[in-house]
Amino acid sequence: MDRVAPTPDNYRDYYHRIGGTKSVDSFPEQAFRSIASELPKSAPAQQRFARRFDEAINSQSWPAIRAALREISEATDAPEVPWAPLIQQIIDHMDRHHAAFTKARKKESLKHVLDASGTAAPILHSRLSNLIKHWSSGGGGEETTGIEPTPPADIEPKPVPQQPTDAPVQAGVSAEISGALDELFRRGVGALLSDTPELQTRVTHFGERLNPWPDKTTHPVLLADLHELILKLEWTGEDQSGIRRALIALLQLLIDNISKLVIDDKWLSGQLSVVTEAFSQPLDIRVLDEVERRLRDVIDQQGRIKQELTDAQLRLKQMLSGFVDRLADMSQSAGSFHDNLERSSLRIADAKDISELSNVIEDMLRETRVAQEDARRSRDDLTSLQQQVEQANVEIGKLQHELHHTSELVRHDPLTGALNRKGLDEALEREISRARRRDVPLCVALLDVDNFKRINDTHGHHAGDAALQHLADVIRANLRPQDSLGRYGGEEFVIILPDTDVEHAVAAVTRLQRALTTRYFLAEGQKLLITFSAGVARLETEEAAATAIDRADKAMYRAKRAGKNRVMVA
């Protein structure tokens, strides 16, 4: 009845309200952080647990907290390892003669196992037991049969299947699996280690040791090398993760610093907000590609506008300089006229007859006409300069406004914030290329707002624009991070759904329709329910994006004819 969103928190609140009970804090973050600060971190296992505990606190995840506590509990509940019999067997085998193993070679193998096993007691016990088995299996020339090594307490001895005498002794691994494992290490794991060439070479070499599958006698050493390689990969992964977090933190610090230094340059706000938004969520190649394209286009556009602004400011400076020069000319002309008046006054005082006065008057009239002409010409020049300055100021203001809003206008529709046609074409080209390269499905959905003309006619175009903004906000809030929304034209929108087949695409668009029913749109204080009809099409092999959108458009019109607020498959 309250029409609230069906979130876990709302369910919990209503549960306690109906039951008359009191809700507890959802996640005691401060208490957990206090505990985490007191955890020991001297041993690798303790450091690993502390790191996972911190990650669980950062994500505020109860399941992650439970998993971390269960892990440390299981580690402390490890069974006792029978070390005494095992050490005695190692001493006996070190002194015993083996045809295939010299004492130096046995010492080297033992040291290798000890170095690779770290402090994990069960793993070390298992590896040492396997090493003794390996020595025993190659001891055809030993003086006595010796004592068989005691197997680990948690491993039951397995019966050895009897093979026909004419069947060769082979490990149960086919050539295909052996080759696939080689490919896994060389192409799969090795491709992730381009920043650590030494470890990449080691991984590649280990994959080559698996193809063909090695002899059984080498398995203990192979297993020890594998465990050592796993540890090195784990450490490398932790280092790379730490480097990535440090780089993101450093970039965020630079962004904050730039935003403080250039607080008056509003034209930078668009780029800073885009970069901040991209790095405030888990890194995704699609998001980073989009940010790069947006920034590149914004930088080009702003570079052009900035140059035009600089040219306009230079013209304004030149006009102001001409204005000052004209004022200087007027001042010089006025000074010259003043000097002429003073000379004429002296001539009048010294005049002896009327003829001399007549000459003085003619000179004064001539100088006055010249001064008037200079003043009129200066007035016209100043008026023209004033008009040019006003025009330049208007142009500069327009360029500054355009510069401030360039980030919002590039590749995005200024009304809804969705991709415009240019951004939509680029996103489609990028996703089609990725889908064909990875051989994964790609769907597009074209939707059209139902009865949009009625909203415009009844409530005005301003309400229609607000309705489109409301629709775009709801769709973006319910899409996956890898999905893209673009305004196709008018009240039509296109949604790009990568890695999605037709059934899941229809389900996703249907969820958007349901989400719209839970968020009413207010027009002049009146609640309006906005619905849309949609068509969904999956891009076929070698099909152009325009063709798929056209098929989705036809399916959308079938949904309109079927009663609206429906989703049809092309």
Tell me what you see in this structure.
The protein is built from 19 helices and 7 strands. Mean pLDDT is 76; it is low at 139-171. It is elongated. Among the domains are: 25-76; 421-569, 2-Layer Sandwich (Alpha-Beta Plaits), CATH 3.30.70.270. Helix 2 (29-37) runs antiparallel to helix 3 (44-59), helix 3 packs antiparallel against helix 4 (62-76) and helix 12 packs antiparallel against helix 13. The two termini are 37 Å apart. The chain is an alpha+beta fold.
Topology order in helix (H) and strand (E) letters: HHHHHHHHHHHHHHHEHHEEHEEEHE
Q: For the residues shown, what is the average pLDDT?
A: 76
At the first level of CATH, what is the class of the domain at 421-569? Alpha Beta
The biggest sheet amounts to:
5 strands, mixed
Helix content: 55-70%
The spatial strand order of the largest sheet comes to: 2-3-1-6-7
- Quick one: CATH superfamily of the domain at 421-569? Reverse transcriptase/Diguanylate cyclase domain
CATH architectural category of the domain at 421-569: 2-Layer Sandwich
Shape: elongated
Structural class: alpha+beta
Q: State the total count of DSSP E strands.
A: 7
The helix tally amounts to: 19
> Distance N terminus to C terminus?
37 Å
Into which percentage range does the β-strand content fall? 5-15%
Can you tell me the residue ranges where pLDDT is under 50 for at least 5 consecutive residues?
139-171
Q: What is the fold-level CATH name, i.e. the topology of the domain at 421-569?
A: Alpha-Beta Plaits
The value of Rg in angstroms is 41 Å
